[in-house]
Design goal:
By secondary structure, the protein is an alpha/beta fold. Helices cover 41% and strands 14% of the residues. The chain contains eleven helices and eight strands. α2 crosses α4.
Length: 272
């Protein structure tokens, strides 16, 4: 029988551990602004990720690399102001933690102090172990991210599935174990084989959140703009669209434009 509560007034890292131990799934979405964060928070999402995917979704960059720490803090602070229930996790952007562990800690502290977020997320395994440990020692919750790590896209050269080969899969398992031992409260695994994701999920006690990693993980994360159908150019296998806002918004704008030009807006009831 599940030991997890049916409802939580506030989601914490401890909540996520309870959800995993109770066999209940964790729902996670991205958000980058106050309005969207408030909507998905009221809808009952468990975790909101202020992802460096804002570089793509909000700024139109080809990769996540250009977004800065200052920009991430701006987005994170906007999200936090709209949230009352969900756990807010913020990506440390490229260049904010790779140089050395002291810089990583400074970046994490800035995010926590200036945005009011609840945790940070870092991409990578053993290469950034020292940075993760230093951040955790400062009392800042850390979520890991393994598999396809978009900040390393130029190293990979492709967005294809990771850890299909034996050596890479073995290293990923070692990294998962290291992150758990270090004290991370959860790990995102992106675009890895479903069987490997299932093996990892059973192997550790901390929640494993998947994106393109099958159904056997402890939870799922997607980009909110993608599930709402705001970006039709992005259609990976793992994405399910729940709305077609591209068409809905386009239709609304066309109708508004036509009403203005035809002098149908505003009418007598829409003026003072």
């Amino acid at each position: 029988m599940s030991n997890a509560k049916n409802n939580y007034t506030r989601i914490t890292t401890n909540t996520l551990a309870e959800l995993k131990s109770g066999g209940r799934k964790i729902a996670m979405l991205t958000a980058y602004d106050y309005t969207m964060a408030g909507i998905i928070d009221k809808a009952g999402i468990d975790v909101i990720l202020v992802g460096d995917s804002a570089s793509n979704v909000m700024a139109g960059h080809e990769t996540t690399l250009p977004i800065t720490l200052d920009q991430m803090i701006y987005h994170a602070a906007s999200v936090v102001r709209g949230v009352k229930r969900a756990l807010v996790v913020v990506d440390l952007p490229f260049g904010a933690y790779q140089a050395d562990s002291k810089e990583a800690l400074r970046s994490a502290i800035r995010i926590m102090k200036e945005s009011g977020a609840h945790a940070v997320k870092l991409e990578g395994g053993y290469q950034i172990q020292e940075s993760i440990e230093r951040i955790l020692q400062a009392g800042i919750p850390v979520m890991g991210h393994l598999g396809l790590t978009p900040q390393s896209i130029y190293k990979f050269g492709t967005y294809s599935v990771r850890a299909k080969e034996g050596s890479e899969a073995e290293q990923l398992i070692k990294d998962v174990e290291m992150l758990e031992k270090a004290g991370c409260f959860g790990i995102v695994v992106e675009k890895i084989p479903a069987k490997l994701a299932e093996k990892i999920t059973k192997k550790v006690t901390i929640p494993i959140i998947g994106i393109g990693a099958g159904a056997a993980v402890d939870g799922q994360v997607l980009v909110v703009n993608d599930i709402l159908g705001m970006n039709k150019e992005f259609s990976p296998r793992f994405l399910r669209r729940y709305l077609d806002l591209d068409e809905a918004i386009s239709g609304a704008v066309k109708a508004y434009t036509q009403d203005v030009k035809n002098q149908d807006f505003p009418n007598e009831n829409e003026q003072y």
